[in-house]
Specification:
Elements: H1 13-26, E1 31-33, H2 34-41, H3 46-61, E2 65-69, E3 72-75, E4 81-87, E5 93-98, E6 105-108, E7 120-125, E8 136-143, E9 149-155, E10 159-164, E11 173-176, E12 187-195, E13 204-213, H4 217-227, H5 236-243, H6 251-255, E14 258-259, E15 265-269, E16 278-284, E17 290-297, H7 299-302, H8 308-316, E18 320-321, E19 326-327, H9 332-338, E20 346-356, E21 362-373, E22 376-379, H10 380-389, H11 395-399, H12 423-444, E23 454-459, E24 465-471, H13 475-496, E25 509-511, H14 517-528, H15 540-554, H16 560-570, E26 575-577, H17 601-614, H18 622-655, E27 662-671, E28 674-679, E29 685-689, E30 698-701, E31 706-709, E32 715-717, E33 721-730, E34 735-740
Parallel strand pairs: 14-21, 15-22
Antiparallel strand pairs: 1-3, 2-3, 4-5, 4-7, 5-6, 7-8, 9-10, 9-12, 10-11, 12-13, 15-16, 16-17, 17-20, 18-19, 20-21, 23-24, 25-26, 27-28, 27-33, 28-29, 30-31, 31-32, 33-34
Length: 742
């Protein structure tokens, strides 16, 4: 292109923009430095150069050009045809996520071909409109995601439709009478879309299952599971396969294992637990040492890789814990009977056996397939009572809320079977002292102390919530936790911690990355409003030490809950991977999940690999196990979402009986739509819509977690104490609305 003789004469922005666009269009593959653009366009005065720079920035905003490095530009010529995933939005602003990565691209509803959320599609890029974002149009739906929708049926004379609860679908689903499966108005149903004609406003569906009447507890819990794509019934053929498994233990199998049936062994679990996948044993050795066994149900002995039971467990990935039920990963015969470490029954176990002193220092350890026999089934409350009676509990335990001693289901004895002064009781106290030392050293090494209360509901026979209570982890819980952590860490180190010139064998690790620096900066800024200081940058140990100091400082203060919540949001999510990066929250270089194979598939994978390697087997295929790790991480997240949805449903159901009542609460969330408030006495959370704050025009200050009134400058901050009235409890949307009481 010839040099333009513009010199210092005044150029209109429109003319200069045309010159810049022509430069890039005539040379679509060229890269131009800024000074080269000035030279080629003949720009020699400061005003024209600044005008050109402004035009370049606008063209970048429009994605017309891109910056390959600082002040070097080229034409942004994206591929016209791409494949990727379609994401549907209820507001019609759908997006396309390219398979090769990159920013999401807008797909207007008129250009969507009625693609559904999660569909694999092919798109064509549309001609860019000036000052508009990039847009694409779906041209082919390559693979439909096998998705169902949950909602309430409305049946008319000649047709029916589903009022869906899915926020990705803006319309109801039309259902012909022939596809209704005898559904009636008010039924909770699972529906699959079978067709969406090009010119039709509504998709056409068919009923897959009727869950029951809307509002019935069982129907609503099943609806939550179905909404998240989780199974709510166990396949009959898998149950049948489990029934054929023999629970008997042959003499040959005992001979292959380390026999520990004569060692004092017990389980410690919630009072209503049915699947006991871990037990502890202890006996005295010479020289002030103790043998402590962490015994885990040997699920891999019964569930062979590739079997029908294994395939179902792999698909589920985890057990799901809703408010009123457990949806197990394994068939009930396995998790509650064959594998469960029930008292006074011989069981096959996989054990990490430690030789330790009373300070919790491990002198030696070994891994073994064992046969064990639990002498006693304890509840957490029973063990806690022993610790408190012997004055061995932590000082804070005596003041913390807790349950009365609860009898274990089917245990047959009302409280404890260990009388004061017996050897068994003293060994339990020794385990507690060891656990406290393990915990102390873990936090000294930089573990982060998140110890939040859990909200639980008291339910009547029909599943309706009649009360709310809080579960607090006391020393009895922490005793079990520390030995499980020790076992998990030890087996992970045995595989991952190899000499420098050796490559470790493949193992699924439980990893947890360091917090995002920007989130830590935001957290430091937020807590400063309450008068706390937090070091946002530094080594892992330094940031963990700062977080622990913060969490300790806020304990018992009115802002405790909100500071803990914001701190949790600053943390990365733990996940599974064969690529070890350590576990930040626990301050472990190597960590895995070994201790719960009844309810987590990664633990089952770890058991199989440890057995294989102990027998001299070669390293497993990393690509295969990384794919399984990703799948298990996804399953864990979906299960957590379903659990939260069930809690939210019960909160709304509980507050239905308190309409019009006033409560003291704390602002737990601030959004552009309004304020979330958590009621102090029962932790139920609802929203004050922005439209109801009618004394001013409020604007959302995202950086500072607050709403600010434009005229009077009144602020509503995260953590503020407010008084609210229960205005509406919408079970259909699992939504609780509050009204601010000024």
């Amino acid at each position: 292109m010839s040099k333009k003789k513009t010199g210092g004469r005044s150029l209109k922005k429109k003319d200069l923009e045309k010159m810049v666009v022509n430069l890039f269009q005539e040379n679509p593959t060229a890269e131009y430095e800024l000074k080269t653009i000035y030279r080629l366009l003949g720009l020699s005065t400061h005003p024209t150069k600044m005008l050109c720079l402004d035009i370049l920035e606008n063209l970048m905003m429009d994605d017309y050009i891109k910056e390959t490095e600082k002040y070097t530009y080229t034409l942004n010529a994206p591929t016209q045809v791409m494949e990727g995933t379609f994401h549907r939005k209820a507001n019609g602003k759908n997006t396309f996520e390219p398979a090769e990565g990159g920013e999401p691209i807008l797909v207007a509803e008129r250009n969507s071909m009625h693609a559904m959320d999660g569909d694999l599609v092919r798109v064509t890029m549309l001609a860019r409109r000036k000052h508009h974002v990039r847009e694409a149009a779906v041209t082919d739906i390559l693979k439909r995601k096998d998705k169902t929708f949950v909602g309430t049926l409305q049946v008319r004379k000649d047709f029916a439709y589903l009022l869906t609860e899915d926020r990705t679908l803006a319309t109801d689903i039309f259902i012909p009478k022939s596809n209704l499966k005898k559904g009636q108005t008010g039924d909770k149903a699972v529906v699959k879309i079978v067709e969406w004609p090009e010119n039709a406003k509504n998709p056409i569906g068919k009923v897959i299952d009727i869950l029951g009447k809307t509002g019935e507890n069982n129907a609503e819990m099943h609806a939550i599971l179905a909404e998240y794509g989780l199974p709510y019934v166990y396949p009959a053929q898998v149950e049948k396969a489990a029934e054929k498994l023999s629970p008997g233990i042959t003499p040959d199998e005992v001979a292959r294992r380390e026999d520990m049936r004569d060692v004092l062994t017990f389980t410690i679990d919630p009072y209503d637990a049915k699947d006991f996948d871990d037990a502890l044993s202890i006996r005295t050795l010479k020289g002030g040492l103790y043998e402590v066994g962490v015994h885990i149900a040997d699920v891999s002995h019964y569930v062979t890789e590739g079997s029908i039971i294994d395939k179902e467990a792999q698909k589920r990935g985890t057990s799901v814990y809703l408010v009123d039920r457990t949806v197990p990963m394994l068939p009930e015969r396995l998790c509650n009977f064959i594998c469960s470490l029930r008292p006074d029954e011989d069981k096959l176990t996989y054990s990490v056996i430690f030789s330790m002193n009373e300070k919790g220092e491990v002198k030696k350890w070994h891994l073994a397939h064992t046969v064990t026999r639990s002498n006693r089934r304890f509840t957490y409350e029973e063990v806690q009572q022993i610790l408190e009676e012997e004055h061995e509990a932590s000082p804070e335990d005596y003041d913390a809320p807790g349950d009365a001693v609860r009898q274990a289901e089917g245990a047959g004895t009302p409280t404890t079977s260990f009388a004061p002064g017996t050897e068994e009781r003293s060994l339990l106290l020794i385990l507690n002292r060891m656990a406290k030392e393990l915990r102390r050293r873990r936090f000294a090494a930089g573990a982060v102390d998140f110890d939040r209360q859990e909200v639980r509901f008291e339910l009547d026979d029909e599943g309706k919530p009649t009360g709310v209570y809080f579960k607090v982890a006391k020393d009895a819980n922490k005793l079990v936790e520390e030995f499980m952590l020790l076992a998990n860490r030890t087996v992970a180190e045995s595989i991952g911690n190899v000499p420098k010139n050796q490559k470790p064998k493949v193992l699924p690790y439980r990893i947890h990355d360091t917090p995002d620096p920007q989130k830590m900066m935001n957290l430091a800024q937020f807590v400063s409003k309450f008068g706390y200081k937090l070091r946002a940058v530094g080594s892992k140990e330094e940031t963990a030490k700062g977080l622990n100091k913060l969490l300790n400082d806020v304990r018992g203060k009115k802002e405790q809950n909100v500071v803990e919540m914001v701190t949790l949001k600053a943390m990365m999510k733990a996940r599974y991977s064969t690529h070890n990066i350590g576990h930040y929250g626990l301050a472990f270089r190597y960590y895995t999940h070994f201790t719960s194979p009844i309810r987590r598939y990664p633990d089952l994978m770890v058991h199989r690999l440890l057995t294989k390697y102990a027998e001299g087997g070669r390293s497993a295929n990393q690509e295969k196990y990384e794919g399984l790790c990703d799948q298990c991480s996804d399953s864990e997240q979906v299960a957590a979402q379903a659990e939260r949805a069930s809690i939210k449903y019960k909160q709304v159901e509980f507050m239905q009986d308190h309409l019009g009542e006033t409560f003291q609460g704390t602002i737990s969330g601030v959004t552009e739509f309004g304020l979330y408030v958590e009621v102090n006495e029962n932790k139920c959370e609802g929203m004050i819509p922005l439209r109801d704050l009618d004394d001013d025009y409020y604007e959302f200050d995202e950086k500072n977690y607050r709403l600010i009134g434009r005229r009077r400058h009144h602020c509503y901050n995260l953590g503020d104490s407010v008084k609210v009235q229960v205005a509406r409890a919408d079970l259909y949307r699992k939504q609780l609305d509050f009204k601010l009481v000024r």
